């Protein structure tokens, strides 16, 4: 096993035989053990599901946000609408069927999401940076289907390449996808049927929460990372689980499968 210099996080001056993106993918795949139906976009979530299918959860099925389900691609797709997903797929749904039947029908166990900002209860901002909605410092892609995923999937996972206090904030600049906790606080309209964010996997560790009211807690810390590093990189007073563990390192077998899946390092950059 070759040694690769870990360069993704400046606080981690150590060498490991894997990169941070490989660690994130392996950890996310392990979290899918026992899950059956997963909703994901492209990137590390796609890679994590592909790895889970060959390791901890052979029966897990991915529903892509393009409406393709039961895909049997001969190679790793480079986008959710990649043609390699369509050939041989069990079903290709239109958007109404995807959202009305699959998501709102509560047929998805785990939905992968991303965000620019995350708060302690797992509410997400993917819309703007800055306090002035009319003139923000930056405009982001927005919700897409994220608010539907948050509200209707059994639970939501986040895979974040960088854990910083700019991302994990005390107060969101804008709430795109409210957690069940935040929705209950406002108590208007229908309440989410899903549990909201239950896992956040970052380059420093894993944060978990039990819905509806528990905050995200640090439950696992990656090898070589100190608890204080995670505290400094979190914008609120992060709770540390009493049974905090160290994340088991990726095995040679997991890394071999992962590198074969993404041999062009499309996502493992």
Automatic annotation (TrEMBL):
Molecular function (Gene Ontology), one example: transferase activity
Keywords: Transferase
Gene3D superfamilies: Glutaconate Coenzyme A-transferase (3.40.1080.10)
Record-linked InterPro entries: CoA_trans_fam_I (IPR004165), NagB/RpiA_transferase-like (IPR037171)
Pfam family, one: CoA_trans
UniProt-listed PANTHER family: ACETATE COA-TRANSFERASE YDIF (PTHR43293), CHOLESTEROL RING-CLEAVING HYDROLASE IPDB SUBUNIT (PTHR43293:SF3)
Family: Belongs to the 3-oxoacid CoA-transferase subunit B family.
Record-given protein name: 3-oxoadipate--succinyl-CoA transferase subunit B
Protein source organism: Gulosibacter molinativorax
Highest classification ranks of the organism: Bacteria, Bacillati, Actinomycetota, Actinomycetes, Micrococcales
């Amino acid at each position: 096993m070759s040694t690769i210099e870990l360069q993704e996080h400046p606080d981690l001056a150590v060498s490991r035989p894997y990169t941070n993106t490989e660690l994130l993918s392996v950890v996310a795949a392990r979290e899918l053990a026992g899950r059956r139906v997963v909703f994901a976009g492209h990137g590390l979530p796609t890679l994590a599901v592909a790895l889970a299918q060959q390791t901890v959860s052979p029966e897990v099925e991915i529903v892509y946000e393009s409406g393709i389900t039961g895909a049997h691609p001969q190679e790793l797709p480079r986008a959710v609408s990649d043609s390699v997903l369509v050939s041989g797929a069990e079903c290709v749904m239109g958007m109404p069927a995807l959202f009305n039947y699959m998501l709102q029908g509560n047929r998805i166990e785990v939905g992968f999401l991303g965000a620019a900002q995350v708060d302690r209860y797992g509410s997400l901002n993917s819309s703007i940076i800055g306090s002035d909605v009319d003139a923000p410092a930056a405009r982001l892609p927005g919700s897409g289907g994220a608010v539907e995923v948050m509200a209707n999937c059994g639970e939501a996972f986040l895979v974040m390449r960088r854990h910083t206090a700019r991302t994990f904030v005390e107060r969101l600049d804008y709430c795109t996808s409210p957690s069940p906790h935040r929705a209950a606080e406002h108590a208007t309209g229908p309440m989410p049927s899903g549990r909201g964010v239950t896992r956040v996997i970052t380059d420093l560790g894993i944060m978990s929460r039990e819905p509806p009211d528990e905050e995200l807690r640090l439950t696992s810390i990656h090898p070589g990372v100190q608890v204080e590093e995670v505290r400094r990189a979190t914008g609120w007073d992060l709770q540390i689980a009493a049974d905090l563990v160290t994340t088991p390192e990726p095995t040679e077998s997991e890394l071999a499968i992962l590198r074969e899946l993404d041999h062009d390092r499309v996502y493992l950059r």
